[in-house]
Predict the structure.
Amino acid sequence: MNIEIRKANLEDAQLVALLGRITFADAFGSFWAEHLHDYLEKTFSVEKIRSSLSKENNVFFLAFADGLPVGYAKLKKHSPNENLADKSPAQLQKIYLLPDFIGQRIGEKLQNALFEEVIANNIKTLWLAVWDENPLGIRFYERHGFNKESKYHFEFHGKRANFEVMVKRFDV
């Protein structure tokens, strides 16, 4: 399988929005089933993604397998977190793959492209939040140098999800 990772641009807004909807629904659809449509409309509209792509602080990466779009990642270059000593950390905000492509090292390639961007921007701390009911995700991040540092909670339409905040530090 030929894997290509590249930065997304404004012309990719529809592609990122569609991948976002599909992958988020796969990951969280059963948890937020009754409100999933509302969340997808709010978070993954083409307009919202286009706006996010246009912001200097955001960098999106797309993954292609044999020419097919199969995943994406989003880096927020400056994303303070009150629980971190570093006041200028970046956040790995999203990294998702279509279900059929999980376990084929594509997520690792997406993450490595994101790590290269972090290093190129002299960022010392990268944090992320992973759903605590996602043990595969937690293990993936631990294998790649992230450590659990704190927790946070997210509520949407009265449903609460718990997340592990994980951190990776870079020597730049």
About this structure: The longest strand covers residues 159-169. The chain has a mean pLDDT of 94.
